[in-house]
Amino acid sequence: MTRRRLHLNAFLMNTGHHEASWRLPESDPYAHVDLKHYVRLARTAELGTFDSLFLADGPQLWGNLAQRPAGALEPLTLLTALATATEHIGLIATASTSYNSPYNLARKLASLDIISGGRAGWNIVTTAGAEAARNFGLSEEPPHAERYTRAAEFLDVALKLWDSWEDDAIVADKAAGVWGDDGKIHPPRHQGTYFSVAGALNVPRTPQGYPLLAQAGSSEDGKAFAARYAEAVFTAQQTIENAQAFYADLKSRTSRTGRDPGHIKVLPGIVPVLGSTEAEARAAEQVLEDHIVYDHGVARLESLLQLPSGTLELDAQLPDDLPPESAVEGAKSRYTLVVELARRERLTVRQLIGRLGGGRGHLTFAGTPEQVADQIETWFTRGAADGFNIMPAVLPSGLDAFVEHVVPLLRARGLFRNEYGPRQTLRERYGLPRPVNQYLSPSFV
Questions:
Q1: Are 337 and 374 in contact (CB under 8 A)?
Q2: 326, pLDDT greater than 70
């Protein structure tokens, strides 16, 4: 029997996930637009034999420019550059189904998969927030359920486009003067509620068939969507009990759709802050917290909780009369996570901002490499995770430390690979089959 192996994804965010990371003496405030910075990070993650790296994105200017480095290089462009600087690591880009067209995005992702030799992934997001909506001619964001309905049709069209070439459509018969077989091209001719797409993709079928499909929504709509489509799920959980419940629920939902639950990998986020001793790690965490500008944190928290400006008091707890999740049209699951964290631990607004400063609701853990490895092993072996989204608080030093000190411990415990081995696609590394072309499936009519 093949032993179950841990998956590690490096979630890279400019100077690090902690909002005050850019203020440290070691940090470069311009790193978010420096290709060399990202090449260094990608190569470090590849040195640590990570399965993949991941870039978040959104079609709007994030937050307040005073708070932290804002703006970001377009992820598919950046990952194409990183594909030429790496050999093995998977490259996962975030792209919205709300503010893209299926044909253009399917073409870009297929191109990245071909250029990288089968290492592309797509983190599918529906994009919450009125700011993004107004950048695309809308006065407000579409309702939560509508965004997921559109996303489902978007995915169906993208899959048809990626399958529109059979694998052997290119004949390349010089003697006969025949380059390709038109009979092996299948235009989608899709007519739906949101999209009308007639022609076949103008890029051949890719090494993976189509990119690894990742998704991060944990609301009811998000989990239903993930069960139908996702192959990797990025989630935020604060306790092992909540993580176990999410894990079991998502695997069960996936099975009920007729899919193999082993073909969906659950990857909670963890923000590790390392020290040679626990006291040293907590001191490093405190340095970061001391650099938080609380005015920024209050504004961000009021926005998340959909409260009027000036509602929250730093040294008071959250108001008792917050709106229910059902009334939230933005990031529903993150809203619930933050409110439950504050209520469960009876945190003041100041304390809550400190807890969110490192990972925006993801689990933050300060400790020795052994303690971090213990935490990862416990969640992995007790049905809470198939792997982890590693989110260093400070970059590049946090990723360096994780690769140098935690990865060897995971290897020694038999949880993680020692080397990449033969060249694999990203799907193969995640233990996923190459998808059968739907137009060749026995069920296709």
A1: no
A2: no
Nearest one of 51, 64, 48, 58 to 13, comparing CA atoms: 58
SS3 (DSSP) at 91: strand
> Can you tell me which residue has the tokens 């709106």?
323
- pLDDT of 145 > 50? The answer is yes
pLDDT digits (tens, 9 = 90+) for 146-197: 999 999 999 999 999 999 999 999 999 999 999 999 999 999 999 999 999 9
CB 432 within 8 A of CB 20: no
Are 264 and 226 contacting, i.e. CB atoms less than 8 angstroms apart?
A: yes
User: Averaged over 320-345, what is the pLDDT?
Assistant: 72
CA dist 111 and 430 (Å) reads 21
Give me the residues paired with residue 10 across strands: 53, 390
Question: Which residues touch 231 (CB under 8 Å, ≥6 apart)?
Answer: 212, 213, 214, 263, 264, 265, 427, 430, 432
How far from the centroid of its chain's Cα atoms is residue 420's Cα?
22
Q: CA 204, 206, 207 angle in degrees (round to 5)? A: 140
Kindly report the number of other CB atoms within 10 A of residue 173's CB atom. Answer: 11
CA pair distance 264, 300, nearest whole angstrom: 32
Q: Please check whether residue 426 is in contact with residue 231, taking contact to mean a CB–CB distance below 8 angstroms.
A: no
104: β partners: none
Residue 83's pLDDT is: 98
CB 430 within 8 A of CB 54: no
Helix (H, G, I), strand (E, B) or coil at 349: helix
Sequence-separated (6 or more) residues with CB below 8 Å from residue 70: 32, 61, 62, 63, 64
pLDDT class for 327, splitting at 50, 70, 90? low
Contacts 24+ apart (CB under 8 A), 99-104: 99/59, 99/127, 99/132, 99/135, 99/136, 100/154, 101/195, 102/154, 102/157, 102/158, 102/161, 102/195, 102/197, 103/157, 103/161, 103/197, 103/201
Burial status of residue 321 (CB atoms within 10 A of its CB: 0-12, 13-18, 19 or more): exposed
User: Which one of 57-66, 98-107, 357-366 scores highest in mean pLDDT?
Assistant: 98-107
Residue 1 pLDDT grade (very low, low, confident, very high; cuts 50, 70, 90): very low
Q: In 10 A of CB 217, how many CB atoms?
A: 27
Contact of 339 with 305, CB cutoff 8 Å: yes
Q: What's the rounded mean pLDDT across residues 325-352? A: 74
* Residue at 116: amino acid letter: S
**Tokens for 393?**
């608080």
Q: Provide the mean pLDDT of the chain.
A: 90
